[in-house]
From TrEMBL:
Listed name of the protein: Peptide/nickel transport system permease protein
Phylogenetic placement of the source organism: Bacteria, Pseudomonadati, Pseudomonadota, Alphaproteobacteria, Acetobacterales
Family annotation (Pfam families): BPD_transp_1, OppC_N
InterPro entries found in the cross-reference section: BP-dependent_transpt_permease, MetI-like, MetI-like_sf, OppC_N
Recorded topology in the membrane: Multi-pass membrane protein
Annotated organism of origin: Muricoccus pecuniae
């Protein structure tokens, strides 16, 4: 698996981008040239262009944009991990239960998930965040509430196709409880699509969180959140072009990294993809 991952250049690039993001978030206080200025005002230095003193220039507060980008990586990564982790914790058990049994509980769970899926996710997240008020905690809650149906629906479909397999029927015949069958037999065999969906979902979560921040529904100022930084830069375009370019580029590279990693993991972990690729090579030969 590691050899296949190393040969997949797109997945390798995505993994390197994510690793870089993790290192930046972990060592932001050491990497930032002006860590103490992230939450402070320095009006004498406001809107300075990129140069030797400020790599990405300064913002309207006079703070170093590069330092704020580094600290913003911490907020973005923590927000996305908590939101996606909460969605997985909620959606996967619901999908397992609904997919394993055929009763009114399964129907009710899936109808609730479909109600959430019927509304565009970004619209529902905006409505929830607007109702709760601007804060990082409310953004996490809004994303968790609107994302869990994606995992529930995925696990539901996978469980439906897996519950009639021979090894599942054998476990049931040997007296295994439904919980044991779901956790020890079905869940490990559907882990691959869950991992792929989680990786791609991280990129979508970061983009949605940035959108909420841009609309003023995310972290309050002067928190170094990438979406809010882009929103604040609108008043100073096009003169202070660096103000919007730096956080926009950070969002682009982060989302690109998770999407490339997710596509690569799908090709590596999905045996049907490997079989079709092998059949294609055999046919060409």
């Amino acid at each position: 698996m590691l050899r296949r991952f190393a040969r997949d250049r797109a997945a390798l690039l995505g993994g390197l981008l994510i690793l870089f993001l993790l290192l930046v978030a972990a060592f932001a206080p050491l990497l930032a040239p002006f860590p103490e200025d992230v939450w402070q005002f320095h009006t004498q230095n406001r809107l300075q262009p990129p140069g030797a003193d400020w790599f990405f220039g300064t913002d309207r507060m006079g703070s170093d944009v590069f330092s704020r980008i580094l600290f913003g990586a911490r907020i973005t990564l923590a927000l996305s991990l908590i939101a996606v982790g909460s969605a997985v914790v909620i959606g996967v058990p619901i999908g397992l239960v609904a997919g394993y049994w055929d009763n009114w509980v399964s129907e009710l769970l899936m109808r609730i998930a479909e109600i959430f899926l019927a509304v565009p996710q970004i619209v529902l997240a905006i409505a929830i965040a607007q109702t709760l008020g601007p804060s990082i905690e409310n953004v996490i809650l809004a994303l968790s509430i609107t994302y869990w149906p994606f995992w529930a629906r995925l696990v539901y479909a996978q469980t439906r196709s897996m519950r009639n397999e021979v090894f599942v029927e054998s476990a049931v015949a040997l007296g295994a409880s439904p919980l044991r069958v779901m956790v020890l037999h079905i869940l490990p065999n559907i882990a691959s699509p869950i991992i792929v969906r989680t990786s791609i979902g991280m990129g979508a979560t970061i983009l949605t969180a940035a959108t909420l921040g841009f609309l003023g529904l995310g972290a309050p100022p002067p928190t170094p959140e990438w979406g809010r930084m882009i929103a604040e830069s609108r008043e100073y375009l096009p003169e202070a072009w660096w103000y919007a370019l730096a956080p926009g580029l950070a969002i682009f590279l982060t989302v690109l990294g998770f999407n490339l990693l997710g596509d690569g993991l799908r090709d590596i972990l999905d045996p049907r993809t490997r079989r079709s690729a092998g059949a294609g090579k055999a046919g060409n030969g």
